């Protein structure tokens, strides 16, 4: 049987159309698959951002108005004042060591930072306290869940007791090493007073935290 050229051309055209439609459908499927993947990535990103913004950082500005928030803010302010006062006293040459007299004498020409061990101890304690208190306040402000967890943990109580004792010992040590005629006396004395005041506030915070534990977890133990 002999096939006409027209029939052969039509058959070839039909096969070409089928091949073209298959390629188009394959491209369409690839495009749809790519769009689905992009939409899936966007959906995961939105869920992650929503989880971060709403669940992890469920803002808690009310913490700054509570007694704990106010006390933490006072810890930060007083620690900053201790750093400023002690730093000023040490920079003024209050504790410049004299190798000849084997004692600490004033030197108005001193342009460097040098502290007696008691002043250095107070400076280190205040620097550590301001970092810890700032981190504590930031965590409690950024997350209400974090505030509840921190307040319910023994970490906060231990933190208040430890820094209360550190400020107490540092203030007593600094006061016992002061001399009225030395350079920077008033600044160092102010630093010691602020340190002792901060110690009192830390002990108040510790009592507050202990009462919270007693009220909430003591009742649970009784049940």
In short:
The protein has 223 residues and is mainly α. Helix content is 78%, strand content 3%.
Question: Could you explain the architecture of this structure?
Answer:
Residues 1-39 are annotated as: Disordered. InterPro entries: Marvel (IPR008253), MARVEL-CKLF_proteins (IPR050578). It comes from Oedothorax gibbosus. The chain crosses the membrane at residues 73-100, 120-142, 154-176, 188-213. Residues 63-214 form the MARVEL domain. There is one protein chain. The chain has 223 residues and is an all-alpha fold. 78% of the residues lie in helices and 3% in strands. It contains 6 helices and 2 strands. The chain has helices at 5-56, 67-91, 117-142, 144-152, 154-176, 185-222; strands at residues 96-98, 103-105. The chain has a two-stranded antiparallel ribbon. Strand 1 and strand 2 form a beta hairpin. Helix 2 (67-91) packs antiparallel against helix 3 (117-142). The longest helix has 52 residues, at 5-56. It is elongated and about 80 Å long.
